[in-house]
């Protein structure tokens, strides 16, 4: 099979048509291969991390493409002039602990010296929604002056991501339109809740799965990303 585009499923197409702020990375055969590996229950932790890291790098690169740039002309070694670009604003990564920390290395590898903060959102296991009694954040003081890369690999109900954005907006003064949410696997329910609440936030994901089951797990999904990535139960 050549690396040709793979057509997204019906749920994905419906979401993309309804919410223009959602970006699905190009669905190539290589992306499908990576998803096959990380979704397989038989995949070892070593392979899960390897293929997840490959996939996350693609997602982060796509997210960076939505940042503003300024013109910058440089001289090449041939003496010619090249009309190029440079970043127009600083950025900051914010990982939703713990699974979001798996995406930090890809951002560091692509943005030298990037600052990264963390938000912890505890979830009520009975309702699968955030428990507002338990949250923690440690973010750079100048985060309101930067573009924010919010990182969480799974978007199920959308509750944790919505709570994290509310913390950024209400407690740190970040502007909604300066947030880019990067994500590995999402579902229609989570995207609908998130995009309805925050219509100015760009969402970049590598997959939009079918739905949530009655236990609030993404289907077909891949299980608990954090447990599989960090090797814990």
UniProtKB/TrEMBL annotation:
Listed EC numbers: 2.4.2.9
GO molecular function, one term: uracil phosphoribosyltransferase activity
Pathway(s) served: Pyrimidine metabolism; UMP biosynthesis via salvage pathway; UMP from uracil: step 1/1
Catalytic class of the enzyme: transferase
Keywords from the named record: Allosteric enzyme, Glycosyltransferase, GTP-binding, Nucleotide-binding, Transferase
Phosphoribosyltransferase domain mapped to chain residues: 27-232
Any GO BP annotation: pyrimidine-containing compound salvage
Required co-factors: Mg(2+)
InterPro entries: PRTase-like, PRTase_dom
CDD domains: PRTases_typeI
UniProt family annotation: Belongs to the UPRTase family.
NCBIfam families for this protein: PRK00129.1
Protein known as: uracil phosphoribosyltransferase
Organism name: Neobodo designis
Lineage: Eukaryota, Discoba, Euglenozoa, Kinetoplastea, Metakinetoplastina
